[in-house]
Amino acid sequence: MMHSEPLVATLHVTVSTADTRSAASRDAQALFERLFAEYQGPILNYVYRLLGDTALAEDLTQETFARAWKARAQLPRLDNPRAWLYRIATNAARDHVRRARLLAWLPLFGNEPALQSDSHEDSSLEAERVRVRLLELKPEYRIPLVLYTCQDFTVAEIAETLSLSVDAVKQRLVRARQQLREALG
Predict the structure, then answer these.
(1) Nearest alpha carbon to residue 64 among 77, 183, 14, 42
(2) How far apart are CA 49 and CA 142, in angstroms?
(3) Is 77 a member of any domain?
């Protein structure tokens, strides 16, 4: 019986410490769950637009949220969790491209869901034409253009997401549009 008293005291201290940590942890977890519910689909579509592969987009979306989960303690302090999450997704896509040395970024233009299978023949041909022309754009122009056009990011949000100045984002958007217009003729 002598051994039970220290065990109880130790258990009590451990529970008190765990309760303190778990309150902050619960807040971060609740924020994470809201982010996941709100942005799982948009992140999937964004990554699909960058890479053009549904299975890969699903994998990298999962990786994005796994990375976000590991860093969830930062959530309560973030001014713009959306930009933070898109930065993680962008970095996951860039990491994949670097690892695989892929150059085939195939973003879609438009607001259709990435996994939608019904499309009209003319729309499909035009989408393919845009995809081919977008291949000619460097990722430094493609990424801001997709975020702005397809994901409805503001210029300020893109700047925060990509760690660029607002002026740099504006310049990249202008150049991307100009190059795309020229490529589409």
Answers:
(1) 42
(2) 10
(3) yes
pLDDT in tens, 12-41: 333 344 444 566 677 888 889 999 999 999
The structure tokens listed for 13 are 């201290």
Assess if residue 95 is contained within a domain: yes
Q: How many domains does the chain have?
A: 1
Q: Which domain holds residue 167?
A: 22-113+120-184
CATH of the domain at 172: 1.20.140.160
Would residue 88 count as lying in a domain? yes
38 within a domain of the structure (yes/no): yes
Q: Is the pLDDT of residue 43 over 90?
A: yes
DSSP 119: -
Q: How far apart are the first and last CA of the chain?
A: 87
pLDDT, position 130: 80
What is the spatial distance between Cα 78 and Cα 71, in angstroms, rounded to a whole number?
11
Instruction: Report pLDDT digits (tens) over 126-162.
Output: 777 887 787 688 889 989 988 888 888 999 999 999 9
Q: Return the SS3 of 77.
A: helix
Spatial contact of 130 and 109, defined as CB atoms under 8 Å apart: yes
Element (H, E) at 29: helix 4-51
The owner of tokens 């607002």 is: 166
